[in-house]
Design a protein that fits this description.
The protein is α+β, with helices and mostly antiparallel strands. Helix content is 38%, strand content 19%. The strands form 3 sheets. Strands 1-2 form a two-stranded antiparallel ribbon. It has a two-stranded antiparallel sheet with strand order 3-4. Strands 5-6 form a two-stranded antiparallel sheet. It starts with a helix and ends with a helix.
Length: 156
């Protein structure tokens, strides 16, 4: 079908690998997929047979994963306690004279340095603890999950 062809094309265009190479349904078809973008991380996929009255086989996936310990405490700016009046005062600069005879990169670097210094001097930091995500839920993984969901939405 057109949807199947579009799905296969998406898999190939994104250099994804489908790892299941055995029937996973009682009818002898392969409707259950294990798709990855890093095939070397999956080192074994095993057919564990039927569970209960299911017409699908259970699949056991063994993969290599480097666990990175995610720091749950980090420092962030506490913008609710920022001294915004002092920040406005610090940034009341004659920018025309500051930027005179300078190219765009030099102007950006000057602005960026003054802006960051103003933030460091006027916005206190606070330590927060992130307990909303498990330690293994990295930023990279969250991005990949969003990408997968967008692809699924486009496919439907």
């Amino acid at each position: 079908s057109k949807k199947s062809e579009a799905f296969l094309e998406t898999i190939q265009n994104n250099f994804l690998t489908q790892h299941v190479n055995f029937p996973t349904h009682i009818s002898g078809t392969m409707p259950d997929l294990v798709i990855t973008n890093i095939p070397e991380k999956v080192y074994e996929i095993e057919d564990c047979g039927h569970i209960g009255k299911s017409d699908h086989n259970c699949i056991l996936i063994s993969y290599r994963n480097q666990t990175r310990i995610k720091e749950t405490k980090r420092l962030v700016y506490n913008w609710s306690r920022a001294n915004t009046d002092k920040m406005k005062e610090d940034l009341q600069i004659n920018w025309n004279s500051e930027f005179r005879d300078k190219d765009a990169n030099e102007c950006w670097n000057i602005f960026h340095e003054k802006y960051n210094r103003t933030i460091e001097e006027n916005v206190p930091k606070k330590q927060i603890t992130s307990d909303k995500q498990p330690l293994w839920m990295t930023t990279k993984l969250i991005r990949q999950i969003r990408k997968k969901r967008r692809a699924w939405t486009r496919y439907k």
